[in-house]
Specification:
mainly alpha, five-stranded mixed beta sheet, 5 strands, 63% helix
Length: 502
Amino acid sequence: MRDAAGKGVGVTASAAAVRPGVGGPPAPRPREVPWLAVVAAVYAVAQLALVVPHMGGGLLWDESVYVSQVDPRHPAAFFSAPRSRGISVLVAPLLAVTSSVPALRVALALLSAAALYGAFRVWGPLVGQRTAALAALLFSGLWITEISGSQAMPNLWVALGAVAAVGWFLRAPAERPANWWLAALTAGVTLLRAPDGGWLALPLLLGATGVRRWRPALPALFAGLGLGAAQWVIEAYARFGGIGARLRLSSATEGGMAPHLNAGPALRALNGPLLCRPCHVPLRHPELTVWWLALPLLAAAALAFALRDHRLHRDGPDRLAATVLPLVCAASLSVPYLLLITYAAPRFLLPAYALLALPVAGLAVRAIRAARSPVPVAALGVALALHLGSQYAVLVHNTSGEARTAARYQAAATGLHRLGVRPPCLVTGPRALPVGYAAGCASAQVKGNNRSTNVDGVLDRAARMPTAALGRAHGTPPRYAHGWIRHPLPGTGWAAYLAPRR
């Protein structure tokens, strides 16, 4: 019996040694799925599959302006007062290597997916990894987010920078490196779009002034604003006669910025076009606007629940701030586009959508955790699937429209080359900026928001290099181009008037 007892004890001890939590090492916790990384990867794949292959090999109007500033192979297009140079800085390293537009789009698609991951990862310690991942999914699933990722435009990068900046602001009281990140991101957003940097910083500065634990963030905010705005201020004095003069010219270029409600144009442009100016088009596919109309209601519900939990002492002030501050910053960034201008573009509100996705995702996660049956969870899943499906339908339509526009610019450039208009050359008239970039020519306008020269300047350059004035196929040439030789540009609806060779 002693041997049997000893043997039994030995078996029991051995079993205890390998049984988790009984006399041995604790069982390893199962690794959580890195949902945020999955969302970022899906965002990259969606762009590479649904957007990049269908955009053709050309750039759109605003892209041409931003890219031409740092493209060593093309003359720089006129850079108007409201623009900021951050996106040109972003693409400069890529253009130093190649001028291929498809390569640029692929690189931007991958870079925007990495930025999406980095921006929403900041929020993991604040709201939880799953909430941050769901917020990233809600934002990246929007059709305007999908189409913007591979474009050389600043609005998406402002949105991601704003998300990360607000997150680091909230983490600053507990983490010393957070202030460095906050300063860098505030500078980046301001460099991308100087006015947006100010509208983002305004509520953060007010919060840091009024809340003691946030006051150490003030130097970082001021430093970021100063560094980001330095180039804009220097250029204001170098080109426009000072800050006040640049602001006045910017207002005139935007059609006169003054307080008034711009909700109508913003609503009509929800599903496109990508630029609604003047915005007299009807709302496209109103049945697909449910998400946009529900967004303010969902944000209000998230705020109500956050306030209730705070009153019941179930959540501390940091949890409340993680809901309130994104809402306030989203509202601040929306002010110029909803209350000051008279036209609309879906990309203008990308920063607001990105910030609002955080409290809305928190509301959804709260509902899932509170559900006592699978029915509410299934309903939320169906709603998310319908939302993403509607966004896909709008994405396909608008991507094809953008591709046709870019192809039209390329066709015009090809037609000019066939007519002998090759670098060094000059293109004037409507749409001269994107067509000139596509053709490798300089561009100039004698009137309008992009006026960069006068008639005498055009005629002087026309005497020295091949020059084409663009006009409608069945219209009349510009006044200074009477007597120039008219050539149709097939596939564009335009004609080119070539200056006589001397």
